[in-house]
Design brief:
By secondary structure, the chain is α/β, with parallel strands linked by helices. It is built from eleven helices and eight strands. It has an eight-stranded mixed sheet with strand order 3-4-2-5-1-6-7-8, sandwiched between helices. Helix 1 crosses helix 11, helix 6 crosses helix 7 and helix 7 crosses helix 8.
Length: about 260
């Protein structure tokens, strides 16, 4: 029987590769998982070797959005029934790999902080063949979500112009500042009417961060509101394949390019 992922030794100094990018949001319903999938596709199209890890503790749904039926998932890795490599599934239409989550299992949240640290260290060690590992985190600020966000090299916080979304995004950034002082946290504004309105939304969030946290998170991208996003999700299709020249597709590709900076 393969050793459980949680029993892997702690890696004190993370390697240069893979670069881990955690994608978070203060509240649900802001398009976080769709953005994670589309960003993974954009990076793969740019020639990067990408693993998309569905780390949403309670509502893992990357596989649902893509119409997949995984044979193995994160729960089987943590339980030691399979290795991480065996659980990874190739998603050929997008050119990237997926490690499916286990919806409703609470597998990650059930781990104590020390075990979760070991699991995250093992994730780095066992994914060295990738350039980038994207972690689609659950919405909110549960302990395990905060721990995964702090362990990543870069944190992308998704928000919309709704006041509750901005308030919750600020909370995520505040806690990340406490958990990893000086860490690389950036903001993505989703569902913006125009680039200009998205930049104004970001400016409001940035102002709160610089005033109260003495932290200046960079703008990682503005994704415009686009009805073709809903069409792609409904059809369990990749936006960059189904509607490659639409506004949202172009914006995600721009965000993927900006990540290189």
């Amino acid at each position: 029987m393969p050793a459980p992922l949680m029993d892997a030794p702690v890696m004190i100094v993370p390697p240069a590769n893979p670069r881990q990018i955690a994608i978070a949001s203060g509240k649900g319903g802001v398009g976080k998982t769709w953005f994670a999938i589309t960003l993974a596709h954009a990076l793969a199209r740019a020639g990067r070797r990408v693993l998309l890890f569905d780390a949403d503790i309670g509502l893992a749904n990357v596989d649902v959005q893509l119409g997949l039926t995984p044979v193995h998932d994160l729960g089987s890795v943590i339980a030691g029934r399979t290795t991480l490599t065996e659980a990874v599934q190739r998603f050929a239409p997008g050119g990237f790999d997926i490690l499916a989550g286990c919806s409703g299992s609470g597998a990650l949240s059930a781990l104590d902080p020390a075990h979760l640290d070991r699991a995250l260290a093992a994730l780095r060690r066992e994914t060295m063949r990738y350039d980038l590992v994207l972690l689609d985190l659950g919405a909110g600020v549960e302990r395990a979500v905060r721990q995964m966000a702090a362990s990543a090299d870069t944190l992308l916080v998704l928000a919309t112009d709704e006041p509750t979304s901005l308030t919750d995004a600020y909370a995520v950034l505040k806690l990340h500042n406490s958990d990893r002082t000086g860490g690389d946290a950036r903001v993505v504004i989703n569902q913006a009417a125009t680039h200009a309105t998205g930049e104004r939304t970001y400016a409001n969030l940035r102002r709160a961060c610089t005033t109260f946290l003495q932290r200046d998170p960079r703008l990682a991208g503005v994704i415009r509101r686009d009805d073709r996003v809903r069409d792609a999700i409904r059809r369990q299709a990749l936006l960059l394949t189904r509607h490659p020249s639409c506004a949202a597709a172009l914006d995600v590709e721009a965000a993927a390019q900006a990540l290189e900076v």
